[in-house]
Amino acid sequence: MPAKSEHIRKVAIQGDYGSFHEMAARKYFRNSEIEPVPCNTFAGLFEKTSKGETSCAVMAIENSVAGSLIPNYTLLKDSGLCITGEVYLRIVQKLLALPGEKLEYIKKIYSHPMAILQCQDFLDPLRQKGLEIIESVDTALSAKMISEKKMKGCAALASDLAAGMYGLEIIAKGVESNARNYTRFLVVESPGNREKKSVDKPDKASLCFSLPHKSGSLSQVLSVFAYYGINLTKIQSLPIVGREWEYFFYLDLIYKDHKMYSSSLTAVEPLTDHLYILGEYRSGRMEEGNINR
Prior knowledge:
alpha/beta; 6-stranded mixed beta sheet; Alpha-Beta Plaits; D-Maltodextrin-Binding Protein, domain 2; 3 domains; single chain; 5-stranded mixed beta sheet; disordered N terminus
């Protein structure tokens, strides 16, 4: 039996083995050997990585159908970890149940809230027939629970990877509402652990800031980025607790010239109250091709 490699990368993932987080981690690190480390919560994912129990973490941040995972922005800002990469994963939801079960036998469906949001067109008619849709902490954990507890009349929205791992059958395929259902995942790690690779020249950055509570403050900042030719791909605002009607703004930027990007930050900083660079990294790519369901 060959010796276990000493260079296996431990990667914290939200959920259990067979989750979409594991699939995203394996896609991003496809040229490396990894050991997924399951975490029940996103807070646990950050904790393990901050303590050095894992070398990095892979965390979902937004879905093209269900939107942003809002709490993860604050977790990221407060963690002290930095974004070092991103990966897009085409999410194909399957309805899984014990062998021999059929859709007409199902009374309860379990899954993560984001997965449920992605499958509303499929689930709404079932709700009207009296099926109970139950939120859980993870897609794969839902599948694992049904398998281990032999839960007849129950199903889980999860991946085909989870089906194979937990011995479940796929009783409905491609149940997501939109075939162009993608989730964007971030790779985060401690700044001191970041590996310097010349091939990974950054062309994207994520940052957040608060602003003086006065008219036109946000438009000033956005005008500066436009002047320096920086492409704004996302903006998300979150209220600052204890400061009514004031917000942290989270931005994703794409740039071609790192010097121009750096100059834009120098120009923007005096216009903000607090400015945090959450990470500079290589932008991920969505794989178009055939969209199989």
